[in-house]
Amino acid sequence: MIVSVKDLNFSYPKRPQLFDGLHWYIPEGSVVGLLGKNGTGKSTLLHLLSGLLFPKSGTITLASHIPRERKPSFLAEVFFLADDIAYPGNMSIGAYEKIMGAFYPEFDSSQFDQILADFGLEKKVKLKELSLGERKKVFLSFGLSTNCRFLLFDEPTNGLDIPSKSIFRKVVAGNLTDEQTLIISTHLVADVENLIDRVAILNNGKIQLDADVLELSDRWVFGTSSNLPDEALHTEKVGTGYQFIRSRKHQEPQTPVSLELLFNAVLHNSINENSILQTQNSEVL
Amino acid sequence: MNANTISSRRVFNLFRFEFSKNRKLYLMGIPGTFLISAMLFLVIFYSNKYASSWGAQNYAVLYYAGLFFLTLFGIGYSFIELRDKRSAQLYLILPGSAMEKYLIQFLTRIVLFPILFTLLFVLGVEVSKSIFQISSVTIYGKSPTLVVDDLDVFNMLSLFYLWKLPILYYMFIGIGGVIVSIMFTGGIVFGKWNVLLMPLSFLGFTLLLFLTSIVLSWIVIGIPEDSSELFISQIRFQQPEIFTDTPLIVFVVTVLMWLAIPQFFLVAYFKLKEYEV
């Protein structure tokens, strides 16, 4: 596993324990959606992974790096896009690229130009003249162009308009290599649907569910029905019908994973990682 | 070379980041310091135009007063990126070791700022002196009597005037060094309140030392009957002397101050290394 979090404990001073024995493992080349309610510690977890915060106990490793050491060899391989990032307002996008790009050995200027063009931005504009969403696009473009091995995006679609969210998905999907691991923390679940290949749901200080999206659609059916379905793992009333998750039957067509439904199911303890195992076991039997 | 030792490329990148991010500070600070220096001396020369002379020692007083302000408002603004959460995040994850980031702060605040200040101060003195001398001949009907001594930069920087009393010389350097190092460290400890809180802490500590000597005097010698002498220490700190004109206590305090200087710089490094945001 390229990212390994073992028995992580963390709390802010004079605050209740945020993570209590958290375990999390991510395979190389994954695009992970880290989902959770507000205040569950998604951003804190990204801060811990990037070395901005230190664990109280437990270990975190990204490849062979220990983030808290903040060694340059690690920092050159990780790009953390904070939700509310500081920026040198007087710099133009071009100047920002020149100054900041020099820090990242794999930074690709032509890739940066291309992504900026995809977002419809010009390099001569000063950062302070941009709107929040436009600045977000600049930093997203920059982050992807660093070609860092680890990309940590905290609420990357915050501030983006609807067309930009679609471009964001296209740009991210088109600019990642198999060696790169991307973790996207968000509460805007729909924004990362069709982008992520792995989902992790953080709740009550632990990763409540961590699964491959393909595996989920292989095991479970996410659907809607006018009647309350039998054998459903989780149901939600929507309008006059129901949304449900249930085990997928043999040779039944796969359905796209509804992240929102899955998220709610996990939060309501309707399903967890064991549910996947149980589904697997029942199929084997 | 190991990727995690000091790399010249990363140090260069960090320097470039420092100058780009704080461009305003440098662009306004450099001409501003020169103008203030030149204007100050012009005002001094013109207001003393009928005095007999302006001695070379006076430059040193103003130079070290200027350095003191530079320490408060220049060196005291070390680690400016760590003052708010957002810029601290950006700064801490910039690919560079804590040592490299520390080095940039040290080289700019402790080395570059005083060098720039000295150059601008000398330039300010020379320009204002020239303006005063030229305008004195051409403008005034009655010639001014003020003779402005030349600025001897070596004497000013080497504190030549204190050489006659070596312990005073070393003590002055020690106090200066401690003030510089605590203001530098205060940038990472007190953040934006450093300019206020670190001098207050220093004054508080000095007051504590003073009161300790008074209370010790009351305990050892006794409380003076004359209330006007209540806060005058009766303990003779002048004795014993370790060298001629060098009281032991002054010598010890001076040595301790010199030893404290690198300690404060070390504290700043470890604070940076362990900084969380």
UniProtKB/TrEMBL annotation, chain A:
Q: Which residues form the ABC transporter domain?
A: 3-229
Molecular function in Gene Ontology:
ATP binding; ATP hydrolysis activity
Which UniProt keywords are present, listed alphabetically? ATP-binding, Nucleotide-binding
Q: Which InterPro entries match?
A: AAA+_ATPase, ABC_transporter-like_ATP-bd, P-loop_NTPase
Question: Mind telling me what this protein is named?
Answer: ABC transporter ATP-binding protein
From TrEMBL, chain B:
Q: Does the keyword Oxidoreductase apply?
A: no
Q: Which residues cross the membrane?
A: 25-46, 61-82, 102-123, 167-190, 202-221, 248-270
Sorted alphabetically, which keywords does the UniProt record give?
Membrane, Transmembrane, Transmembrane helix
The yes or no answer to whether the keyword Nucleus is present is no
| UniProt protein name | ABC-2 type transport system permease protein
Taxonomic source organism: Algoriphagus ratkowskyi
Q: What is the lineage of its organism?
A: Bacteria, Pseudomonadati, Bacteroidota, Cytophagia, Cytophagales
